[in-house]
Design brief:
- The structure is a single chain.
- This protein has 492 residues and is α/β, with parallel strands linked by helices.
- 65% of the residues lie in helices and 8% in strands.
- It has helices at 2-22, 26-30, 50-64, 75-78, 88-95, 139-153, 160-166, 174-189, 194-210, 215-230, 236-253, 258-272, 275-288, 293-305, 309-322, 326-338, 342-355, 360-372, 376-390, 394-406, 410-423, 431-440, 444-456, 460-465, 479-488; strands at 34-37, 41-42, 71-72, 99-108, 111-120, 125-135.
- Strands 1, 2, 3, 4, 5 and 6 form a six-stranded mixed sheet that branches.
- A hairpin with a 4-residue loop joins strand 5 and strand 6 (125-135).
- Helix 11 (236-253) packs antiparallel against helix 12, helix 16 runs antiparallel to helix 17 and helix 20 packs antiparallel against helix 21.
Length: 492
């Protein structure tokens, strides 16, 4: 009875929206060139289904982001408006968009209904509204239908390739799709914490078991393994092998998923040291989905890591245009670190810590900025904050050891080094991290011994840190360091 009443209410509201939309001038629709899709409301009455509504929101954003003539705000920026009481025109002004899409998701058993409306922000006019209902197994087609209706309404220009991508949605096993959405929820909401990444991994693997031909599940699994390697959740060898296999399978099934090429770009850059391959894959990801902010963020960081300053900062600016939120802020901080712009990193990190003091990576970036500017006591304080919030991330721990050595507290640095050596008997400790502590202690031979180990195992720390890391500045004039750079063939 409750579901029947809710469906009736939605139908009436949708009809009223349509009547109102028909009375609006065509010029309003044709002037929409940027869109924000606000979090779809969960009308199931079950809070445990929030992941489902969030996942459907993300999929709609993903579909719209394939349209090159539209600027589509990313998920990370719109999710902060979940449950907001702000008026749509106010949200549109904050996000600097012409159009806003809002709506709801109702799930009942194996049936899914989406109701959506499109608002022209400058005039506060409703342009379009519609309701769609499908079986859960047709959820991808449902999302595609909504995206195509919006694209048609705003008269966005589509290339033949983009048209084909929008129409390429396939049926998916309902249980596989639900597991996939759970995986996305944990991947995107707590991607810097290993327990959440492991939960995401388990859900993507469950999705694949339920539907071995679901390309997006393999793509999500690959991205999760890349993050797990980055945050020491798995060994480099196992994580790389698992991510590579997931990407291979995803490409066999559908080579037109932007996330797959972005992940492959990261793999080529961080794990393979294939610089040309990384550049090619990042460009392909952006071609497939021009408003995919993650690809712009990753390309910005890649360009920074190889010293292409102006291109990197231009890519950061493009990312901000799509995603004014935390994703672009993180990309800006990473690029400023990689370019050794410590004052700019300090300014950005202070803003970011103020907006979210519980995110450990922001404290870590702030600490690096302080150390780069010679403010070692402030740096140590922020390193300690980052260690506590991250539950002992080893790269941060190595950084505080280096800072201790720099202010003459060698005993503290040596204690951390001994702890690392003890832990390495039972868990993976990056040889690069150990090398930075030895460098801080002035033990160059040991530092180069562990740098060589990092090089031999193709540690992703090498491609990320080697060009920029202030912790190894004392090694840069040594002929052994120059030889290492030549072997790495890092673009100049």
């Amino acid at each position: 009875m409750v579901l029947a009443i809710a469906v009736l209410v939605i139908a009436v509201v949708s009809a009223l929206w349509k009547v109102r939309a028909l009375s609006q001038p065509i010029t309003a629709a044709s002037s929409v060139r940027s869109i924000a899709v606000l979090p779809l409301a969960n009308l199931s009455g079950d809070p445990s289904q929030e992941f489902f509504a969030d996942g459907m929101t993300e999929q709609l954003i993903t579909d719209l982001a394939k349209v090159g003539s539209l600027r589509v705000i990313s998920r990370t920026s719109v999710m902060r408006y979940k449950g907001t009481k702000k008026a749509l025109p106010e949200i549109a002004r904050e996000l600097d968009v012409d159009g806003v899409v809002e709506g709801s998701v109702m799930r009942s058993g194996q049936q899914v209904r989406i109701t959506a409306q499109l608002l022209h922000a400058p005039t506060d006019r409703h342009l379009w509204a519609e309701s769609y209902e499908r079986d859960l197994g047709d959820a991808l087609r449902l999302q595609s239908d909504v995206a195509q209706a919006i694209v048609q309404e705003v008269r966005a220009e589509l290339t033949p390739q983009q048209q084909a991508h929008l129409r390429s949605a396939r049926p998916v096993n309902p249980e596989a799709y639900e597991a996939y959405l759970r995986g996305r929820y944990y991947l995107l909401n707590q991607f810097t914490m290993v327990p959440s990444l492991n939960t995401a991994k388990d859900n993507f693997q469950e999705s694949i078991r339920k539907d071995p031909n679901f390309a997006q599940a393999y793509s999500g699994l690959a991205v999760t393994y890349v993050f797990l390697v980055g945050f020491r959740g798995v060994s480099r060898e196992f994580g790389y092998r698992s991510a590579k296999e997931a990407i291979r399978k995803a490409q066999e099934l559908d080579d037109n998923v932007s996330e797959i090429h972005d992940a492959l770009g990261v793999m080529n850059w961080r794990f393979e040291w294939d610089w040309n391959g990384a550049e090619r894959e990042f460009k392909r990801a952006i071609e497939l989905q021009p408003s995919y902010s993650c690809a712009h963020e990753d390309r910005a960081n890649y360009l920074s890591s190889v010293g292409r300053r102006s291109e990197a900062l231009a890519e950061v600016a493009r990312s901000y245009a799509i995603d004014p939120g935390p994703g672009s802020a993180a990309a800006e901080s990473a690029s400023r670190y990689l370019l050794r712009d410590y004052q700019a990193l300090l300014d950005a990190s202070r803003r970011q810590v103020a907006s979210n003091p519980k995110e450990w990576t922001r404290h870590y970036n702030l600490a690096i900025a302080y150390e780069g500017l010679g403010k070692l006591l402030e740096a140590i304080s922020e390193y300690q904050n980052a260690i506590e919030l991250s539950d002992g991330d080893q790269d941060v721990t190595a950084s505080v050891a280096h800072a201790y050595a720099a202010i003459g507290k060698r005993a503290q640095a040596q204690k951390i080094l001994r702890d690392f050596e003890q832990k390495s008997k039972n868990a993976y400790i990056s040889p690069y991290s150990i090398a930075t502590i030895y460098a801080g202690l002035g033990e160059k031979d040991k530092a180069f011994e562990f740098l060589e180990k990092a090089y031999q195992e193709k540690s992703p720390d090498i491609s990320w840190h080697l060009r920029a890391d202030l912790r190894i500045d004392s090694l840069r004039s040594d002929p052994r360091f120059q030889a290492l750079m030549q072997r790495l063939a890092l673009p100049q």
